[in-house]
């Protein structure tokens, strides 16, 4: 199945649900960054969570930055996800590998460790909104759900999953279910929803069993006035880096540093942290940047 997102409501609009499949984009991230098994799971879950959070934003161009800074050997995670369905991200130590945890699963919590979750929401105008919460488990899903409850006062259940084997990522995605204020006072409804979500054995087993997002949401909320929106939004790994942006960053180093690069290295090499793309700037490129800087200096003087 293609990477995609669908939205739904239930309980007469009192429940909001979003489901995503992120298998291909997680596999692309694994290949681009040469990720280990546990690093793949950690980054895949965080990218999935970022897309789920961004899906509830309204203004075109809105984006969410999710940064997880723990004291574990993974060295942190940074993800940038947009309402437009694009996402990118990286981890601090992509090659780290750990033994399975007590449940026999990839030890994402051990790789992340203790620390903090930072979320920045850029709604397309004004100052971005930022918030920080302490990590609950390092397993990503629990931590993001805790953020949504504590920082946005929205009772939320989040189920994330990444299955990665010898052939790469074969299943990834997640579900976000939120109880809106109009239904939050209905304790029976909230208890019923919590029971349904906690009974799920995970998300990737559902994909591996051949279920699509509509079937998964129907199983979860089908008897609760489920209304699945007809639009399906496609998702993809995408980074906006470019050679021109690299040259712009190099130009900020100044004439002396650029000249030093020409003499010592006969050029410069830059790698994008988000996507792993490597850019090569020749000595001619750097020389042109020096000419541009000198021209700008003369014009301002």
From TrEMBL:
* Gene Ontology terms describing biological process: protein refolding
State one Pfam family annotation.
HSP33
Matching entries from InterPro entries are given as: Heat_shock_Hsp33, Heat_shock_Hsp33_C, Heat_shock_Hsp33_N
Gene3D superfamilies named among the record's database cross-references:
Hsp33 domain (3.55.30.10), HSP33 redox switch-like (3.90.1280.10)
Q: Where in the cell is it found?
A: Cytoplasm
Keyword Chaperone assigned to the entry: answer is: yes
Q: How is it modified after translation?
A: Under oxidizing conditions two disulfide bonds are formed involving the reactive cysteines. Under reducing conditions zinc is bound to the reactive cysteines and the protein is inactive.
Gene Ontology molecular-function annotations: protein folding chaperone; unfolded protein binding
Q: Which cysteines are joined by disulfide bonds?
A: 239-241, 272-275
Q: Which UniProt keywords apply?
A: Chaperone, Cytoplasm, Disulfide bond, Redox-active center, Zinc
**Quick one: a GO cellular component term?**
cytoplasm
Name the PANTHER family for this protein: 33 KDA CHAPERONIN
Family (UniProt): Belongs to the HSP33 family.
Quote the function comment for this protein. Answer: Redox regulated molecular chaperone. Protects both thermally unfolding and oxidatively damaged proteins from irreversible aggregation. Plays an important role in the bacterial defense system toward oxidative stress.
Q: What is this protein called?
A: 33 kDa chaperonin
Which gene produces this protein? hslO
């Amino acid at each position: 199945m293609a990477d995609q997102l669908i939205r739904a409501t239930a309980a007469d609009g009192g429940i909001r649900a979003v489901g995503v499949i992120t298998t291909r984009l997680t596999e692309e991230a694994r290949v681009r960054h040469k990720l280990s098994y546990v690093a793949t799971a950690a980054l895949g879950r965080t990218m999935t969570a970022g897309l789920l959070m961004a899906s509830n934003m309204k203004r075109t161009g809105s984006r969410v930055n999710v940064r997880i800074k723990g004291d574990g050997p993974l060295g942190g995670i940074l993800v940038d996800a947009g309402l437009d369905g694009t996402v990118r991200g990286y981890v601090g130590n992509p090659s780290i590998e750990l033994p399975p945890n007590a449940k026999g699963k990839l030890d994402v919590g051990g790789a992340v460790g203790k620390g903090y979750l930072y979320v920045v929401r850029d709604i397309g105008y004004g100052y971005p909104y930022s918030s920080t919460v302490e990590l609950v488990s390092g397993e990503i899903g629990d931590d993001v759900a805790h953020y949504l409850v504590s920082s946005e006062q929205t009772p939320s259940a989040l189920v994330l999953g990444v299955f990665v084997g010898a052939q790469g990522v074969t299943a990834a995605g997640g579900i976000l279910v939120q109880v809106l204020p109009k239904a939050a006072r209905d304790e029976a409804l909230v208890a019923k929803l919590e029971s349904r979500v906690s009974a799920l054995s995970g998300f990737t087993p559902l994909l591996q069993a051949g279920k699509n997002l509509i079937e998964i949401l129907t199983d979860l909320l089908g008897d609760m006035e489920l209304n699945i929106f007809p639009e399906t939004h496609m998702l993809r790994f995408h980074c906006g880096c470019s050679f021109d942006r690299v040259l712009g960053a190099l130009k900020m180093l100044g004439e002396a540093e650029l000249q030093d690069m020409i003499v010592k290295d006969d050029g410069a090499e830059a790698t994008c942290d988000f996507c792993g793309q490597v850019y090569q700037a020749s000595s001619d490129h750097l020389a042109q940047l020096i000419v541009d800087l000198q021209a700008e200096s003369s014009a301002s003087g």
